[in-house]
Amino acid sequence: MGAYHKSEQESLRDAVLRLKSERSDAHWQWLCDQLALAAEVSAEPVSDPARVAHALGERGVDTSSGVIAGLAHHFNNALMGILGASRMASRSLEATDPARPYVDEITAQAEQGVALSARLLDIGQRAKAPSSEACSCASAENTASPRAEAASAPERTTSLLLVEDERLIRITLKHELQSLGYQVECAADGHEASRLIQARREPLDLLLTDVVVPGPTGPEIAKLVRAKWPTTRVVFMSAYPRDVLIQKGHIQAGQVTLEKPFTEEQLVGTLRAALHGV
Fold first, then answer.
1. Which domains are delineated in the chain?
2. Of all helices (H) and strands (E), which one includes residue 247?
3. pLDDT digit string (tens) for 146-159?
4. Among 91, 135, 169, 273, which is 20 to 30 Å from 263 by CA?
5. Helix (H) or strand (E) holding 118
6. What is the pLDDT of residues 198-224, one digit of tens each?
C-alpha cells in the first residue's frame, strides 16, 4: 500500500479544507476534520495496514469499518454533486471563457477528494483484513462493470424515474440525463417516488434510484415499480461501496449498481447495458 508523495498529500488536504468551507454545521465540520487527519496519515510510508490503522487512531480517527464507510458515503455524495455541477458549467462555457479555469480547478480539486475517499476506504478494508466473501463482492463488481462508451442518446425516447435525495446530485443528474435524450421524472425521496409510480399510467423503461433515501428505500421502490411494470429495468446507485451494500443486505450481488461519484461515460454505459439486459 504505497503512500502519497508530500505534494499530493498537501493537495488532498487542501481539497478537504475547501470542502469544509462549503457548510458550517457541526457534523460536516467533524467529517472534514476526520478526512483531513486521514489525509495526513496517508502520506506516511507505512505498508502494514495495522500500523496505518494505529496511526489514524493516534490522531483521533475512528477506524471501525462502519465509521469509515460512513465518512466515505458523506464525501462521495458531496463530491458527486460538485463534479456534476462542474460538468454542467463546463459544457455551458466557451473554451475562451474567463470562468473556465476556475471550473477546471473545481473539478480537479473534487477529483482529488475522490482519490482521498478511495484511499480512506482502502485503509479501512486492509486494516480489518476483509473476508473472502467481501473480496468476491468487489471482484464481481469489477467484472460486471460495463465498458466505458461514448456518450450518446438512447435509440428511442426512454422514460426514466430518478430517485435521489441530495438536491445538487438530483439537479445535475436530471440535466445530464435529459441532455442524453432520456425523458426524466424526479423524486426527492421514497414517498414522492411511490406517489409518482402510483399516479403514472404509462410504463417506465428505467428506474435509477439511490439505495438509501428517506421513506421507502431504493430496493422497496424497485419492488413497487416491478409489481406494476415487470419489464422495467432497475439501476441502483450509492455513495457506499458495493460490497458494503451487499454485506448489509441492501442489495443482492446480481443487481446493477453505480458507485458514486461516477463519470458520464460510466452512467451512459451502465444505463445502456441495463436497458439491453447485458
1. 6-129 (no CATH), 141-275 (3.40.50.2300)
2. helix 242-247
3. 434 444 555 568 99
4. 135
5. helix 100-127
6. 999 999 999 999 999 999 999 999 999
